[in-house]
Design goal:
By secondary structure, the protein is an alpha/beta fold. The protein folds into two domains: about 5-95 and about 280-300, NAD(P)-binding Rossmann-like Domain (Rossmann fold, 3-Layer(aba) Sandwich); about 100-270, NAD(P)-binding Rossmann-like Domain (Rossmann fold, 3-Layer(aba) Sandwich), CATH 3.40.50.720. It has eleven helices and twelve strands. It has a seven-stranded parallel beta sheet. Helix 10 (about 260-265) links the parallel strand 11 and strand 12 (about 270).
Length: about 300
């Protein structure tokens, strides 16, 4: 029996790659123009993610394409309208990395407020006595979360354990949750000591964190982004950090990633990780399982349970 051709547009964990190669004809998009060119006309399935996505133009190169699987939760870079017009099913892997992302967000909050990086550098350079100034703590502080999906809720649960006051901004109030919903992002930012972006990317949330929001957060406030780089206006964030309009920022995602604006690298009150908030062995195993289940269901003639509804 001929195995279906599957194209991976993104680098995959070794276990996921091996599992796909065992079940399908796995092709990988060449990086930087190097490597074999995939047989575009024969590809029946694509594996991508929200950042890399899949455009209508790419779909047009693959007349046999019938399913596009996002390896992870996000699929904002996939042209779902073009996919629907072609009858291409789009799937994702919801609720597979929420706990890992939430851990990362809390880690940023702790590290920024207590300045672990700066204090370690000071001690290493012999500056023990000069680095013992009081630092903010999470206990009793107010946390504002942008987005209250699975990741936002996981962050809130952790913050509760630190005795934080929790508010959130989302399109709809979640009456079943014990947190205060705020319809105005500016008002929430002004009332927050820590502002965390944990919302989906895409046009609806592009640059919702801008100069006004950061100014409202204030010089004692910390901003953390574990959502998408597009959520934040990068220029406004750089200016806010340079001018001391906010206390600091923890960024796992950037608009320009993997390129990092040099201005951010020069700021001691910024911590940057290379879009790894959702990466852990447990999360990647769950994402691999979801991917394989969606492909197996599709090639068995069924609509995958994890198909998104565009």
């Amino acid at each position: 029996m001929t195995r279906a051709p599957v194209l991976a547009l993104i680098p995959l964990p070794a276990a996921a790659r091996a599992a796909l190669a065992e079940r399908y004809q796995l092709h990988e998009a060449p990086a930087d123009g190097k490597g074999a060119v995939p047989p575009w006309e024969r590809i029946e399935a694509v594996v991508t993610n929200g950042t890399t996505g899949l455009t209508a133009r790419q779909m047009a190169q693959m007349p046999a394409l019938r399913i596009c699987c996002a390896f992870g939760v996000g699929y904002e870079g996939v042209d779902t309208a073009a996919a629907a017009a072609r009858g291409i099913v789009v799937t994702n892997a919801p609720n597979t990395n929420a706990e890992t992302v939430a851990d990362h967000a809390l880690g940023f909050m702790l590290s920024l407020s207590r300045d672990y990086a700066g204090l370690t550098a000071a001690v290493r350079s012999g500056g023990w006595n000069g680095a013992r100034a009081a630092r903010p703590t999470l206990s009793g502080a107010t946390l504002g979360i942008i987005g209250m999906g699975s990741i936002g809720q996981a962050i809130a649960r952790r913050a509760q354990g630190f005795g934080m006051h929790i508010r959130y901004h989302a399109r709809h109030a979640r009456g079943e949750l014990p947190y205060e919903h705020m319809g105005e992002l500016l008002s929430m930012a002004a009332a927050s000591d820590y502002l965390v972006a944990a919302c989906p990317g895409g046009p609806a949330t592009r640059h919702i964190v801008n100069a006004q929001v950061l100014r409202a957060l204030g010089p004692q406030g910390f901003f953390v982004n574990v959502a998408r780089g597009s959520v934040v206006h990068t220029g406004d964030l750089i200016q806010a950090l340079q001018r001391g309009l906010i206390a600091g920022a923890g960024l796992d995602v950037l608009e320009t990633e993997p390129e990092v604006p040099p201005e951010l690298l020069q700021l001691a009150n910024v911590q940057i990780t290379p879009h790894v908030a959702g990466r852990s062995p447990v999360a990647q195993a769950a994402q691999t399982e979801a991917l394989l289940a969606s492909l197996a269901s599709h090639f068995a003639g069924h609509r995958p349970a994890l198909a998104v509804h565009a």
